[in-house]
Write a structure and sequence with these properties.
396 residues, mainly alpha, 3 domains, two-stranded antiparallel sheet, 16 helices, 2 strands, 2% strand, extended
């Protein structure tokens, strides 16, 4: 049975919410400082490539402390309070987003994106005209929109009731009943949904609409299961055990696509630990007369030709396995935040939140910018990965 993974729906941390970005960074920095994480990572990163058992124990303990700190910082965010919805909320949130992004584009001297143009069209704004405003004017619009959102949150129930009343009046005009009766039914339905949502959260906190069924190629009359590319008939699998089994089997095929290449078949595949030093020396020196001494079965012509192409000399540049900060951050940006990755709870949101904008425009309202804090936290995550690469030992 595969371990339970942290489902994206079960997460509080979201890099698209600037308030969460700021609060998470500050809390995680506090956790790292209190538990001396920065200094511990720095000392361990200076260790040799051949770590002792004591250093490995320190590495694993450090990784566990980092995980605890990340989870504690996410927990400190609290669960978001659901605000009663109405079209006015959507408009005010859209207006706040519009002015925030517009001034960011103005400051960075970037072009207006198609997505922002669509937002402007929804809000009935002339974006090209607005873009000619000064940054100071844009900030004033953004602050006003922010105050409007706060005002809505304080009186959200009133806005919601007014919108529901409009819906009930429209239904009554269509002959579907009286306004009072329709409004009562709507509110009763919402109350019931809210109750069942709470029950589900209490009884099955980890159950969210996951993968329930699969389509797999149907077995032919000859008893052969064709590949997905060649299949003409398909069958649906609904049994959870069968679904898991098929996913694991497909993953095995996917990650074994190198099967059949020289290093996965004899004689290269037969080189065990005892023969490895001899094999490395042969690959460096290129002495064909010694090849047969490596394995009892000897080498065929295909393997010999392959070894010839692998002869190492000064012309082939050496690859540095150390990951740079630039490669690390660019790789994280390309990886979707909602990807399910680890049963530990350290999902990709813990990294994306360090690269996302914190939304600080007015320090008096939002506090000091947290970019420097994020950069310092990254000096913990990246060395932990590079230690695993250099040691050849990932934390358990």
């Amino acid at each position: 049975m595969t371990p339970d993974l942290s489902h994206p729906t079960n997460r509080v941390l979201d890099s698209h919410i600037p308030f969460y970005v700021r609060k998470y960074r500050r809390e995680l920095h506090r956790q790292f400082s209190e538990h001396n994480i920065y200094d511990r990572v720095l000392r361990l990163s200076k260790a040799t490539n051949s770590p002792s058992s004591e250093q490995i124990d320190l590495y694993e303990a450090l990784d566990r402390d980092i995980t605890k700190a990340c989870l504690a910082a996410e927990k400190a965010l609290g669960h978001p309070k659901l605000v009663p919805w109405s079209p006015i909320l959507l408009t005010r949130l859209g207006t706040q987003y519009y002015w925030m992004k517009l001034q960011a584009l103005k400051c960075s001297k970037k072009q207006i994106s198609q997505k922002l143009r669509e937002v402007a069209e929804t809000l009935d704004r002339h974006i090209d005209t607005d873009f000619k405003l000064s940054v100071a004017n844009m900030k004033r619009h953004w602050r006003y929109a922010k105050r409007q959102v706060r005002a809505y949150r304080e009186d959200a129930e009133t806005f919601r009731d007014a919108w529901l009343k409009e819906q009930a009046e429209a239904a009554a005009a269509a002959g579907k009943g009286k306004v009072e009766g329709i409004l009562k039914c709507i509110k009763q339905h919402e109350k019931t949904r809210k109750m069942f949502r709470k029950l589900r959260a209490a009884l099955s906190p980890k159950e969210f609409g996951g993968l329930m069924s699969l389509w797999i190629p149907a077995e032919t009359e000859d008893g052969v299961i064709p590949s997905p590319e060649e299949a003409t008939e398909w069958e649906t699998v609904n049994d959870p055990i069968a679904v898991e089994r098929n996913i694991i089997e497909q993953s095995r095929k996917h990650f074994r696509q190198a099967q059949g290449t020289p290093f996965t078949v004899p004689p290269l595949a037969q080189i065990d630990g005892a023969h490895a030093p001899v094999a490395r020396e042969i690959l460096r020196s290129g002495l064909p007369e010694q090849w047969r001494e490596v394995t009892p079965t000897g080498w065929n012509n295909e393997t010999s030709n392959f070894i010839d192409r692998l002869q190492l000399d000064d012309k082939i540049p050496k690859i540095d396995a150390k990951i740079s900060m630039k490669d690390f951050t660019s790789g994280i940006k390309k990886w979707k935040e909602k990807t399910t990755t680890s049963p530990s709870g350290r999902h990709l949101g813990h990294l994306h939140v360090l690269l996302a904008p914190d939304g600080v425009i007015n320090p008096e309202e939002d506090g000091d910018p947290t970019k420097d804090i994020a950069e310092k936290i990254l000096t913990v995550h990246l060395p932990m990965i590079n230690i695993a690469v250099s040691w050849g030992y990932p934390p358990l």
